[in-house]
């Protein structure tokens, strides 16, 4: 998988490594799926092709490790992952005691437009949850208001 990750990072016109990681994310065993999610995050914004596949894993009750890494990877993809915002909010609310919720809160703060009222409301509500989620939600709110918020970068168009 490291080879696919390196290829995906460097080969601009070759989508095959990302598509292979997406396939593994969807069909691999638990370890392969989690590893694929991690690799896609390491690719960063060039893995925007994987947003839907990563989002689809967020609420999977049978694989919390993959869901956690998917939430983290969506944050690494950045503003191109905005279409996953509804599922990130759902994962944060549905699984408040799990890592997927914590990283969903962080990712919401990193990728969302600061004027997005639904994200701000969801993060604010989560600050009253359990201690771990509360900390991540507070961090998400700080990221949302940060001048370094990655959402100020315009998403790239995918063809």
Descriptive key words:
159 residues; Leucine-rich Repeat Variant; 65% helix; 9 helices; disordered C terminus; mainly alpha; single chain
Kindly describe this structure:
α3 runs parallel beside α5. This protein has 159 residues and is mostly helical. The C terminus is likely disordered.
Strand-helix topology:
Elements: H1 2-10, H2 16-27, H3 30-43, H4 51-57, H5 64-77, H6 85-94, H7 99-111, H8 117-126, H9 131-145
Helix pairs in contact: 1-2, 1-3, 2-3, 3-5, 4-5, 5-7, 6-7, 6-8, 7-9, 8-9
Summary of the model, kept short:
The protein has about 160 residues and is mainly alpha-helical. It has nine helices and no strands. The protein has helices spanning about 1-10, 15-25, 30-45, 50-55, 65-75, 85-95, 100-110, 115-125, 130-145.
């Amino acid at each position: 998988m490291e080879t696919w990750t390196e290829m995906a990072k460097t080969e601009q016109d070759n989508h095959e490594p990302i598509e292979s990681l997406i396939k593994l994310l969807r069909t691999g065993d638990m370890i392969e799926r989690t590893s694929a999610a991690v690799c896609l995050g390491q690719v960063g914004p060039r893995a925007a092709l994987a947003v839907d596949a990563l989002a689809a894993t967020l609420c999977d009750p049978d694989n919390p490790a993959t869901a956690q890494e998917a939430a983290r990877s969506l944050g690494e993809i950045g503003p191109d992952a905005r279409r996953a915002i509804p599922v990130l909010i759902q994962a944060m609310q549905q699984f408040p005691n799990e890592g997927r919720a914590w990283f969903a809160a962080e990712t919401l703060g990193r990728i969302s437009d600061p004027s997005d009222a639904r994200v701000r409301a969801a993060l604010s509500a989560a600050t009253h949850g359990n201690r771990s989620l509360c900390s991540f939600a507070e961090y998400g709110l700080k990221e949302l208001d940060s001048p370094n918020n990655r959402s100020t970068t315009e998403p790239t168009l995918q063809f």
